[in-house]
Amino acid sequence: MINKKVEDILNAQINKEFYSAYLYLAMSAYFDEIGLKGFSHWTKVQAKEEVEHGMMLFDYIIERDGNVDLRQIESPAKNFTDPIQTFELILTHEKTVTDSIRGVAELSEGECDIATRHFINWYVSEQVEEEANVSDVIKNLKMFGTENSILYHIDKELGKREYKPHIYKA
Ligand code: OFO
Q1: Which residue of 9, 25, 69, 123 has the fewest CB atoms within a 10 Å radius of its CB?
Q2: CA distance 70 to 19
């Protein structure tokens, strides 16, 4: 049986992962609206990944004989103005998720829940990868500019992103 404090923080994390999915979907709709199909695809793939992150936590709580508590998901931001600003919002958001994952790691360690501490390592690495991917897009946009001809090429590149399902096995 999982400790209640650890169960609570994992349930809060499920909510954050599903909120992330909402946020990426809102961005995907925005990019589609302004004609950047590749950006729209990239953020939609990320939304699918976020749902998986939430589902891995969901399955883990059940596996540990805990109680899943699905909480209300906030409406995502809608104040997108251009690709750089939107990717900067992503980076800021992912940094808050990284902090939140660090909180899960610290709490599980403090509560001597070694299984959760081990489980959450996957998320620690995933956050490093996500922040790096988003930073790369921001660097490209800043380096090459955001004229339509440049955006066209970056959009083509982002449109190649493939969705690869994650499988968690302890
Ligand atoms: Fe779940 O990694 Fe982004 O938020």
Answers
A1: 69
A2: 12
Mean pLDDT over 145-150 rounds to: 88
Helices and strands counted in the chain (H then E): 5, 0
> For residue 149, what are its two tokens?
């001809």
The SS3 of residue 65 is: coil
d(CA 167, CA 52) in angstroms, rounded, equals 9
Distance 47 CA to ligand 1 centre (A): 9
Each residue's pLDDT tens digit, 67-104 = 999 999 999 998 999 999 999 999 999 999 999 999 99
**Rounded average pLDDT over 102-109:** 98
